[in-house]
Amino acid sequence: xxxxxxxxxxxxxxxxxxxxxxxxxxxxxxxxxxxxxxxxxxxxxxxxxxxxxxxxxxxxxxxxxxxxxxxxxxxxxxxxxxxxxxxxxxxxxxxxxxxxxxxxxxxx
Amino acid sequence: xxxxxxxxxxxxxxxxxxxxxxxxxxxxxxxxxxxxxxxxxxxxxxxxxxxxxxxxxxxxxxxxxxxxxxxxxxxxxxxxxxxxxxxxxxxxxxxxxxxxxxxxxxxxxxxxxxxxxxxxxxxxxxxxxxxxxxxxxxxxxxxxxxxxxxxxxxxxxxxxxxxxxxxxxxxxxxxxxxxxxxxxxxxxxxxxxxxxxxxxxxxxxxxxxxxxxxxxxxxxxxxxxxxxxxxxxxxxxxxxxxxxxxxxxxxxxxxxxxxxxxxxxxxxxxxxxxxxxxxxxxxxxxxxxxxxxxxxxxxxxxxxxxxxxxxxxxxxxxxxxxxxxxxxxxxxxxxxxxxxxxxxxxxxxxxxxxxxxxxxxxxxxxxxxxxxxxxxxxxxxxxxxxxxxxxxxxxxxxxxxxxxxxxxxxxxxxxxxxxxxxxxxxxxxxxxxxxxxxxxxxxxxxxxxxxxxxxxxxxxxxxxxxxxxxxxxxxxxxxxxxxxxxxxxxxxxxxxxxxxxxxxxxxxxxxxxxxxxxxxxxxxxxxxxxxxxxxxxxxxxxxxxxxxxxxxxxxxxxxxxxxxxxxxxxxxxxxxxxxxxxxxxxxxxxxxxxxxxxxxxxxxxxxxxx
Lengths: 108, 610
Fold this sequence. Notes:
The complex is a heterodimer.
Chain A: E1 3-5, H1 20-24, E2 30-33, E3 38-41, H2 52-56, E4 62-64, E5 76-81, E6 85-91, E7 97-103
Antiparallel strand pairs in A: 1-4, 2-3, 5-6, 6-7
Chain B: E1 14-24, H1 28-40, E2 46-49, E3 66-67, H2 77-87, H3 95-115, E4 135-136, H4 142-152, E5 156-158, E6 161-169, E7 172-180, E8 186-196, H5 228-236, E9 240-241, E10 250-252, H6 260-263, E11 270-271, H7 278-282, H8 293-305, E12 311-313, H9 320-333, H10 336-344, E13 353-357, E14 370-371, E15 384-386, H11 398-417, H12 427-446, H13 468-482, E16 491-492, H14 494-508, H15 519-544, E17 555-556, E18 568-574, E19 581-587
Parallel strand pairs in B: 1-2, 1-8, 2-5, 8-15, 16-17
Antiparallel strand pairs in B: 3-4, 6-7, 7-8, 9-14, 9-18, 10-13, 11-12, 12-13, 18-19
Helix pairs in contact in B: 1-4, 1-11, 2-3, 3-11, 5-15, 12-15, 13-14, 13-15, 14-15
C-alpha cells in the first residue's frame, strides 16, 4: 500500500533536519534524496498504509495508492487536517467523489 | 539524513544512560507505564526506548474506531472476565491478572476522553456501545493524544532507537541495549527496573495478500511490530506462556483489515458463496452466533477449505447513511480500506464485502501469549516487567486493557525500585552485544562486489550474502506451509512442525551471512533475527499442545480433539546453560465460579463479533 511523493509538490521540508514524513514514518521508510532534496519511500513493498506521512505532509505531496494487485488504478483518498477535525475526500475509479468530515479531538 | 557507515566496531560510539525505569516500546501501554510511573513518583527518572517515533508508533499508528473493552452499566469486572473466558472457550487464562486489569479498566478508558479523544455518545450521554463491551470512538488522533500526554511528564524519549537485548546481573534484568537508527550509536541503558511493552509479533507468517511486490505488508497488525519484546526475553531465559495461542482472525479479503467494524458495528452476518448464514448453518452445534471467538474467526477459512468460498459479511441491508458512517469508522482506524473500496468501485450497500483469514499473529493483547508474569506484572526474571501485548496469560485486553496493563506494570516497577540500586554491568555481555548488533553492518561495509548488477536492480545483489528480506520471506513461507498458516487453513501436524523447526535452525545457522548496507537495513536484519527466535518458540509450543483446543488459533490434524489433560498453561523457557528450550506445564486456577465456556447472561446478539 505504498505512498508516492508528487515531485512537483514536495519541497523536502526545507530548513528542517529531517522532513516531517521521515520523522513520523512508523517503518523508517520515508527519507530524503539528498540529490533532489525531495522525499521518497525507500521500500514501497514495506509500507503498512497507516497514512501518517500523508496526514503530516504540509504540502499535500503524498498520495497513497492501493497496490494494483489488489485494487484498480485511479482511486484517491486525500486528508485535510484541521486542528481538531479532519476532512477526507475520496474519489473512486468511476470518478464518484465522497467527502467525510469529523472531529478528531474534543474542544478544549 | 546522510549516514556514515562505520568500518570497524571502534568507529561506533557508545552512549551509556542511567535511569530508574526503562520502558522498551512507547506504544499505547508503554506510554501508560510512563504516565503512571511519573504520577506515582514525579522524581523518577523514566526513559522510553522507541523504535519509531512515539507520536505515531505501535498498533495505534493508523488510528482506532472503538475501545473493545469498557465496563458499561449493568456489567462488572467479574462479568467482563467471565465473558473473556468464554471467548477463549473457557481458557485456560490467568483470571487473577484479568480481574486486576478489569478493576482499573474504566479509569484508563475514561482518561483517554479527558485527554481529548472524542467518544461517540448515546441519547443519554453515555459512551455509545458497539457491542456488549465495546464503545465507539473517533480515534484518528488517539496515539498523538496519548503521546502528548506522555511528553507533558517529560520522560527521556529515545525515538528511533531499536532495542536489541536485556542486560543482566545474575538473574536480575538491569536495563537493555539498542542501536540508534538515525545516529548509529550503540545504546547501553542501565535501569533499576525495565518494562517490555513492545508490540506483539507480526510477519512470522506469510500474509494471504502478500504478492512479494508492493503489497508485502498488506496485513492487519502493524508489520513493524516484529516480536522483539518477546525475542529479548526468550534469549534472556524468561518464561513464556501460551505461545501456541495464535491470533488468526477473520479480515476483509485482499486488504486484511479489521472486520468487527462491519460485523459488530453494523450487524452484518457472515455468508458463504451460496448465501447461507455460515455460523447458523454450519456452526449451530458450537453456538452459532455466540460461538467462541476462535470458532467465528475460523469459519470463513472452513468454508473455503470445503469449497463454499468466497465468503462475505453481508452489508446489503445498510442505508446510504450507514455506509457513510461505516466509512468514517474505517477512516478512523484503517483509512485505506475506504481507498480500497474506491479502487474496486464497490458500494457495500449493493455488494457484500469479502472476508478471509488473516495470517497468524502472536499478540498477547488479543490472545494470551506472552511473558509469564505475577500480579505486579513482573516476569520470571527480577527487575523485568511486561505490559500490553507482551504480558501473557490474559486474552482480550485490546486498547483499554493494554493501557490498564501499563498502569499495573508501572505500579509494580515503582514498588520494586523503592530502595533498589543499579545492578553491575557485565562488560563482556556489553562488548559481545555491540558486536552482535553491528557485525551485519560491518560485513555490508567491507564486502567486495562479486556479481554484476543490471541497472535498476537492488545493488545488494552484487554481494555474496543474504539480505534480511530474503530470510524474512523464507521464514514466512516456511511458517505458512508448515506451522499452520492461512495457506494451510491454520492446520498443522507433528511432522510439519518438525520440518519447520529444522528449517528455522538452518536459517539460524546462516545469521552470519546476513548483511546490512545502512542503518535501515540493520533494523531489518535484527527484525528477522528476532522473528526467528519467536517463530521457533511458537512452533515448539504448537508441538507441545497435542490436541486441538482452539480450532483455527491452534489446530492439530493429528490430535483433532480437546485433551482434558492439557487444560493447563503450556510454558517454555530457554535454559541458558544448554541453549535448549525447556517446555513445562502450569495449572489453570479458576477464580470465578461457574461454567467456564459460558458468559453470564444476558448476551445480546449485538455483542457478537465475527
